[in-house]
């Protein structure tokens, strides 16, 4: 049983020293990654949790399929390989769009060598807050503590879900930085100018489209439209919970205490040079 600094419980499965969401069979699924066969046209969306997975997923899906409208299913966007048996992934038609939060050391090696990877980065203060609400509002009773307890859990590299944010970004960026099969997308850049990022993603994927298509994808992937179009399973959330909570930059200011912010900034300043990417806490 895992607990935070205030004694509140926290549900996770520890695999190779990393705390993961307690999906059934997650340990054996990850151990079976040695049998995972990557395809050259696979597209992986990789990030530390709550960094824009569903957002980028919908952009990619609209571009790849040429569909004009989002599907209403939210499930389509949560094909976490760590939550599935390798065999079920084999049955998916190409091009597969897969997403994962695993740190580099748990990622299937073949996929790293052969497939396209979009790594999304969101400033960690907002990602931590978003993750807190995800854990708290989830019907899986993932966490029953307070923001203060969750902050401590997340700042501690030994208990942070999916591993320390700093290591996640630094390790992934080291292998992706000069990899032509990889694209780094920042949540804050999508907030600033979504159409520009949609165009970058389309060109990277090899699906260049017209301005008209970029315009449509930008409209359909706005926060308001996604929140309206996507049906969220009632079995997943407690009342008030949502995958589309606020969708803004800077909500951390409503949660971080002055002391928490100082603690965070001290560690951030120490580790910043390993990240190889600038981080925007504001836009
Ligand atoms: P908040 O909890 O801060 O609102 P993920 O998909 O990785 O789980 O990330 C979820 C976060 O991305 C949530 O953040 C959600 O609101 C935000 N998000 C999802 N779609 C978005 C969109 N179209 N525009 C802006 N933010 C979006």
UniProtKB/TrEMBL annotation:
Which parts pass through the membrane?
none
Q: Which residues form the Sulfotransferase domain?
A: 41-273
**Molecular functions per Gene Ontology:** sulfotransferase activity
Lineage, highest ranks first: Eukaryota, Metazoa, Spiralia, Lophotrochozoa, Brachiopoda
Q: What is this protein called?
A: Sulfotransferase 1C2
Annotated keywords: Transferase
Of which family is this protein a member? Belongs to the sulfotransferase 1 family.
Q: Which residues of the full protein are shown?
A: 45 to 327 of 537
